[in-house]
Amino acid sequence: MATWTWFHRLASPPHVYAFARRWTPWFGGFAGVAMLVALYGGLVLAPADYQQKDAFRMVYVHAPTAWLSLMIYTTMAVAAAVGLIWRMKVAHAAAAACAPIGAWFTVAALGTGMLWGKPMWGAYWVWDPRLTAELVLLFLYFGYMGLRAGIEDPVKADKASAMLAVVGVVNVPIIKFSVEWWNSLHQTATVMQLGKPKMDGDMLWPLLLMFVGFALYFITVLLIRLRAELLRRERNASWIREVVA
Amino acid sequence: MSEFFSMGGYGRYLWPAFVLGFGIVVLNLVLALNSLAAAKQEARRRMEMSQ
């Protein structure tokens, strides 16, 4: 019973708007602290790697951005599916809010990866399965945003873009497992694997903390963008008057 | 200090990567706040027009 009450509240734009407004500073504050401590841990406290030396510290910016690019797409696809199945407007708004954030973090993952690739592989770019699939992810985000922008009717735009988001989610496991399924220059998983991570504890804790910081940061930015989406979509609703007055 | 910034000779790749990554972190926050401010302004304008 309580679950259904919670689910119904999640479908209510004014309730979601109020929740987002209340919790954004908390998520943002914790995200900032986690990222700063993780940066200090990764750049100052963690020892250099025996093979990659100090270049390994790239992991503290590359891995969280790459992980976030996938997590945001998955969140977007789940929200889009919920919007399609239950015709929930808030879910479509959440999916739309995810897209620009995800696209930016895919750019960050590709850019930081290129800067790590040059000293390690001798090239900024290779048509490796992991890199190519990540590039496809960027085009999926662009496709999603382009489709939304190209359809004037918001209901049709929600439906068409949601279908693209759901179909495109097939790319997420392809990116994740590409390093195992095909011969790849890219290293295999060091943290996100079954059993014990391959990293030493002194290197691992700043990375795990950075993941937590990036996750909280994503929630922060998503809640801000979701509020903007709800204000635009619910422009004729009476509750808007109260929140912007 | 210069040893820290040189990062064993990898600084020329490492620091641009951090600037890019965390620059996008800051940029996304600014873009989201701008989008919210614009949506609020638009809502206020509609309210004034309807009165």
Give a short synopsis of this structure.
The complex is a heterodimer of chains A (245) and B (51). With 245 residues, chain A is mainly α.
Helical element count of chain B?
2
Round the Cα radius of gyration of chain A to an integer and report it: 20 Å
Number-wise, the strands of chain B total 0
The figure for the number of domains of chain A is 1
Number of helices of chain A: 9
Low-confidence stretches of chain B: none
Main interface: chain pair and counts: A-B, 41 and 32 residues
What's the total number of strands of chain A? 0
State the share of residues found in helices of chain B, binned by percent.
over 70%
Series of H and E elements of chain A: HHHHHHHHH
CATH topological fold name of chain A: Four Helix Bundle (Hemerythrin (Met), subunit A)
| CATH class wording of chain A | Mainly Alpha
Kindly state the percentage of residues in helix of chain A: over 70%
Radius of gyration of chain B in whole Å, from Cα? Answer: 21 Å
What fraction strand of chain A?
A: under 5%
Element layout with pairings:
The complex is a heterodimer of chains A (245) and B (51).
Chain A: H1 2-10, H2 13-45, H3 59-86, H4 89-121, H5 129-150, H6 154-168, H7 171-181, H8 201-233, H9 238-244
Chain B: H1 2-6, H2 11-50
3D structure, described in words:
The complex is a heterodimer of chains A (245) and B (51). Chain A is mainly α. Chain A has one domain: Four Helix Bundle (Hemerythrin (Met), subunit A). Chain A is 78% helix and 0% strand. Chain A has helices at residues 2-10, 13-45, 59-86, 89-121, 129-150, 154-168, 171-181, 201-233, 238-244. In chain A, α4 runs antiparallel to α8 (201-233) and α5 (129-150) runs antiparallel to α6 (154-168). The relative contact order of chain A is 0.18. With 51 residues, chain B is mainly alpha-helical. Chain B has a domain at 17-51. Chain B is 88% helix and 0% strand. Chain B has 2 helices and no strands. Chain B has helices at residues 2-6, 11-50. Chain B is rod-shaped. The termini of chain B are far apart.
